[in-house]
């Protein structure tokens, strides 16, 4: 008999909680995901690039300038 695969809300929240509980191996602090938006402008327009970055105590000073 084949396994029943469910991709419901409960499995998505469980996976999100597992990602949230990860700790940095260097500083032993929780790793937080932050959306970083970088702007670049030309003569007539502006462009935005979005990246999701993992932040902990090790790289917090580099990202939050």
What does this protein structure show overall?
This protein has 65 residues and is an alpha+beta fold. It has a domain at 29-65. The protein is built from two helices and two strands. It has a two-stranded antiparallel ribbon with strand order 1-2. A hairpin with a 4-residue loop joins strand 1 (32-41) and strand 2 (46-55). The longest helix is centred in the first third of the chain and has 12 residues, at 9-20. The chain starts with 8 loop residues before the first helix and ends with a helix. The model has no long low-confidence stretch (mean pLDDT 83).
What keyword list fits this structure?
flat; alpha+beta; 65 residues
How would you concisely characterize the structure shown here?
The protein is of the alpha+beta class and 65 residues long.
